[in-house]
Amino acid sequence: MAIHATSICLDESCSERRLELIQTITSVMDPVRETGRRDWSLTGIFDRQLNKACPLAKESKVVVDVANAGEGYDPRPQPYVNGTMMSYDLSQAPLDIGMTWHHERAFEYPLEPKRPVIYAQRYFTGYGQERGGLKITMYNRHKTESVPVIYYDSIPWYLKLYMHTFKVNVIGKDDHDVVKQMYYQPAIDRGRPSTFECELLLPPDSIVTMSLDFDKVFLKYTEHRPDANRGFDIGSAVLSTWDSEQNLMRIYTDTLLVVLPTPDFSMPYNVITLTCTVIALFFGSVFNLLIRNFTLV
Predict the structure, then answer these.
(1) Which segments of the chain belong to CATH 2.60.40.740?
(2) What's the superkingdom here (predicted)?
């Protein structure tokens, strides 16, 4: 889930502006894994249909991209088709949008998946529970053109980034001037995450790697989750670029899992048992001395 804020000029001189807010939700569903077929519907995926349009919006539409849907599919209900886009007007709600491939018994994935022209990978480096590193590798598979991209990452406050360790390495080209602009907002403990944004120009047929080091913060024992030894999830980074028709594309990296210094949660139990044992021995000895009568025989 993300919220994008954009300042839009209302006239040519840009004397008046308005703020446009766009809320996006990204979710990946795989009906083939459960049924072996590509058939899908809103009721089958989300267990509900669209009952009404947004009361605050001027228009509410659902757009389905069928560029990679192949042939032989049957959409329901019948949509308005514009090229490879099918749109539904929510004023006709309730709607249970879906697609069915009647002549397809089972869907077979292609043997050689196609990689996009621009894609990225992000992973942790180093070892131990005190320090580590973050490395981002971006690939430009275009043979002749340089591609501008914007890398955006939000790192939780319990990972202290060191920007003086920031390095850029270009594999395949001698041009190392790939970083055009960079913005960094440091984190506030228990207040806000670190924000790192970088504008780059990826050379053609190259691999660009960015890396920086960080320290792991010692959390309070009350700030750990019940499954503390599993680690903490780090959200995806976003790589924004534009295609040949100047359409904005967003590429999301994989989520990461970081293991922070974890205390021994059995120590409070050990302290309680040891303290209770000492108190019991002391109380038993004192109580025995107070109530026992000593006589000479």
Answers:
(1) 118-258
(2) Eukaryota
Token output for 25 = 């939700």
CA distance 256 to 236: 8
Q: What is the pLDDT of residue 212?
A: 93
Which amino acid belongs to residue 64? V
Can you tell me which residue has the tokens 């998946």? 113
How far apart are the C-alpha atoms of 217 and 132, rounded to whole Å? 11
Residues 6+ apart with CB under 8 A from 87: 61, 62, 63, 64, 79, 80
The answer to whether domain 118-258 has CATH 2.60.40.740 is yes
Rounded to an integer, the average pLDDT of 9-27 is 84
Q: Tokens 């959390």 correspond to what residue?
A: 219
Confidence (pLDDT) at 111:
61
How many CB atoms sit inside 10 A of residue 17's CB?
Answer: 12
The candidate with the shortest Cα–Cα distance to 248, out of 91, 24, 80, 31, is 24
238 DSSP β-pair partners = 152, 252
**Mean pLDDT score of the chain:** 86
Q: What is the pLDDT of residue 50?
A: 85
3-state SS assignment for residue 202: strand
Paired with 252 in beta bridges are 238
pLDDT, mean of residues 164-186: 84
Contact 250, 204 (CB under 8 A): no
The confidence score (pLDDT) of residue 113 equals: 65
Strand partners, 9: 17
